[in-house]
Amino acid sequence: MASVHHWTGREASALRTALRMSMRGFAEQLGIALRTVAKWEKLGSATHPRPDTQAILDTALARATPQVQERFEALLSRPDRRTEARTPDHETWAEDIDRVIVCLSHQNFTFAQNLLNRWLSRHDPTGIDDRGRYLYARSLALLGDLQRDRGTVVGPLSARHSYNNARRLFNELGLSRRVAQVDLSLAVINEMSGQLENSARQYEELAADARLSLRDRSRARLWIGTALSKEGNSHYATRVITIAAQEFEDLGEPEDWSVAHQKLALAHLGTGDIARALHCIDIARQSGTVDTPMQRVRLDTAHGHILLSDPGTQDDGMSVLKQAARTAGHYGLNHQLRSIERIRQTHDSPPATRSRRGAGEDEPGSASAESRAAHDHC
Fold it and tell me: Which bin fits 134, alpha (ψ -120 to 50), beta or left (φ > 0)?
């Protein structure tokens, strides 16, 4: 049976790893403070638990299964790389995170993923210090953004998976604002997955969440309107989005204000008010301060969808959508590309097909389906 003559932080950390427990779970099992476990992780062999804690660790190891004890011995037999793992080049890592943010804003997904993988594959979040774990969590959250923008929203290699892992680390680090920001991203994933009622409820809670900045709370309010509009509740959506737009104006956020008018245009379209829809989309196209492929695709998709709604401008609308599809395909914006194709297929179908409304159905030609496609996403 495995035994330890004298425990240090290294052996304690190895036992936690062998048990496959989080720091919080390990602390709760031993009945000690989380900060004590964090200290063991951070200092390794340089720290020594108190005598009473040594006895607690002895008991935990003695009660461990043979498989856990085998893993524990294997971990201790390896060279102690903890010091190396605990002191990554934080400054370079932080710089790479800044580079990733720029890459994502221009949809340079390949280079962004290479930068993220450089660090995510190099480190185990259980074996680095709190600063390293924070950077690891930030990298996971950005990986989620990348996967979301590429349209991979569910599954083991998806945005949802990355966001959940980032949330767990932020929560262990006690960073409530970051946790709330990831919650907002997870609500977006729910909306993109078609869980409109659930996402609207999450947005409503986050719009009043003091952990978030005023801007993020206003974005949550805007996305309440997006979810409502996708559900076909366009009249209420216009009121909610108008409030969000006013908040962005008060906060001095011109890009968010422009996006709000893009969403407001689609909500007005949902009410059948094409004139107001065109007015709002013109404001959005003229006022945007950031010209990225993603924003161009979103604006062109919304604009094309509105033009298609008027028989006199349908040809122009189809032309705008074709251009949006080319841009989306070139930059790998798969979620937007699928949305554009749904809108185009709707208007390519025979009029009789477009006019059908089955009881409880959301046919490709229905107003609800078109609204969902044009709004994707945020």
Answer: alpha
